[in-house]
Amino acid sequence: MSEQAFNELPSSRCMDAFGPIGVRMHFAAEEEIYAQEEDADLIYQVLEGAVRTSRLLSDGRRQIGDFYYPGELFGMEPGDKHSFSADALGDCTILAAKRSAVRHCGDQRERLEDLIWKATTQELARTQEHLFVLGRRGACEKVASFLMSAAKRARSDLTPLAMSRQDIADYLGLTIETVSRTLTQLQSDGLVRFAGYRNFQVVRPAGLSRLVAA
Amino acid sequence: MSEQAFNELPSSRCMDAFGPIGVRMHFAAEEEIYAQEEDADLIYQVLEGAVRTSRLLSDGRRQIGDFYYPGELFGMEPGDKHSFSADALGDCTILAAKRSAVRHCGDQRERLEDLIWKATTQELARTQEHLFVLGRRGACEKVASFLMSAAKRARSDLTPLAMSRQDIADYLGLTIETVSRTLTQLQSDGLVRFAGYRNFQVVRPAGLSRLVAA
DNA sequence: CGTTTCTTTGAATCCGGTCAAGGTCCGTGG
DNA sequence: CCACGGACCTTGACCGGATTCAAAGAAACG
């Protein structure tokens, strides 16, 4: 497991969102945080590391829902069961809080309910954006838009990728080979430059965003 | 425009969800209810007819977000601007309410806030399901899952389709030709039978759902 | 330094897209 | 009531991009 590059970032110490009802937990790489169909009475915040949510099909195909980074909340679900599973991309620290505990939380209650509302609507926005990327085919467009949003999140010039090629493929609805070929092509077109498998920098932002097209 | 088949359904008179702050409106087929980037201070409920939300790209491609039917709420948005536009699939009656009016709504307030919360989380669930369908490629799977969810919504044996082939294509991320070919194939495989362009019945439910694979 | 795992590359195949007719349905007007 | 016209849908032939299968190449790890 080679998650080092990502975990050794200046792991932006971020705020504990849940206050007194939050419980700190640690997960090793690839460890499961919650499973599909499990009761969804907890909500989570990433403190360090990164998390992915995914849904597995009977025939082995996998759809990744999203990736979550320090500061972000995940685990909000429409129903009372998780429709995706969540697991640690690398070693990570997670804060968990009982959803049902919010109502017995006195002065914090309003703030927490607002927090959950915001996180849920933002989740909706992310999902819509993801949908939009999957809908319009074209491997180049998909990969380019993935790289752009990754780069936007990074503060440094060099953008780290917390996930494997397979993860990217399952996120975009492509095969790992297509993702790899497309990355190679984007690189030889001079739009991005990779430093190892899991770090890259955008060389020509305008060129990249031209591929995406709003 | 041949929306008759759908509009002449026993148009399930459904409850007015908004009470005193709701305003009844009527839209003709293809008329725009709200536009992309427009302020999102209203929420809507379909009373009669059907509605589609969509997002247009600069190059003409279109992604349909979802279809809404009598009783369902739409127009909830993560931000304060609409990220999709909405328009009438056929002639329809819509109920609209100012989101900001909810807080001045006295005894109804709690109920309305709960309603909006439920609608938003359900919207999230629908979007995730849609994402899931788009992610796993295969025209057959996509079309089959579309037909299945349409059939599940219908009370009658004969399922009406409120939308055109082009709408289905833009919903599933396929071309109209592929949708058409796939429908023909499903029919000649004896899984469904079409009566005209916009009505079908499921002949072998098990066969259809086998194509979808959870 | 060898082994394992992940990634890249190559060649052949296949599914869906594109382009171009042809067919069907439906509303209109003779 | 039937003929016409236009919009929508289906079908066919061809093409291209993504998948598949297979193997070689790079990193990470002990």
Model description:
The structure is a homodimer of 214-residue chains. Chain A has 214 residues and is α+β, with helices and mostly antiparallel strands. Helices cover 35% and strands 24% of the residues of chain A. Chain A is built from 6 helices and 11 strands. In chain A, helix 3 crosses helix 5, helix 3 packs across helix 6 and helix 4 (165-172) crosses helix 5 (176-188). The model of chain A is unreliable at 1-12 (pLDDT under 50). The first copy, chain A, binds a DNA duplex (30 and 30 nucleotides) through helix 5.
Keywords:
homodimer; 214 residues; alpha+beta; Jelly Rolls; Arc Repressor Mutant, subunit A; 2 domains; 4-stranded antiparallel sheet; 11 strands; globular; DNA-binding; WH_DNA-bd_sf (chains A, B); CRP/FNR family nitrogen fixation transcriptional regulator (chains A, B)
List the helices and strands and how they pair.
The structure is a homodimer of 214-residue chains.
Chain A: H1 4-7, E1 22-27, E2 32-34, E3 42-48, E4 51-56, E5 62-68, E6 73-74, E7 85-88, E8 92-98, H2 109-135, H3 139-153, E9 159-160, H4 165-172, H5 176-188, E10 192-194, E11 199-202, H6 205-212
Antiparallel strand pairs in A: 1-8, 2-7, 3-6, 3-8, 4-5, 4-7, 9-11, 10-11
Helix pairs in contact in A: 3-5, 3-6, 4-5
Chain A binds a DNA duplex (30 and 30 nucleotides) through helix 5.
Low-confidence stretches of chain A: 1-12
Using the 3D structure, state the CATH architecture of the largest domain in chain A.
Sandwich
Q: Span from first to last CA of chain A? A: 36 Å
Structural class of chain A: alpha+beta
Tell me the fraction of residues in β-strands of chain A, as a range.
Answer: 15-25%
Largest sheet geometry of chain A: 4 strands, antiparallel
The CATH homologous superfamily name of the largest domain in chain A equals Jelly Rolls
Report the average pLDDT across residues of chain A: 91
Task: Trace the largest sheet of chain A across and list its strands.
Answer: 1-8-3-6
Number of DSSP-assigned strands of chain A = 11
Q: What series of H and E elements makes up the topology of chain A?
A: HEEEEEEEEHHEHHEEH
By CATH, the topology of the largest domain in chain A is Jelly Rolls
Number of helices of chain A: 6
Which percent range fits the helix content of chain A? 25-40%
State the domain count of chain A. 2
Shape label of chain A = globular
Taking all Cα atoms into account, the compactness measure Rg of chain A is 18 Å
The top level CATH class name of the largest domain in chain A: Mainly Beta
Largest interface: A-B, 31 and 32 residues
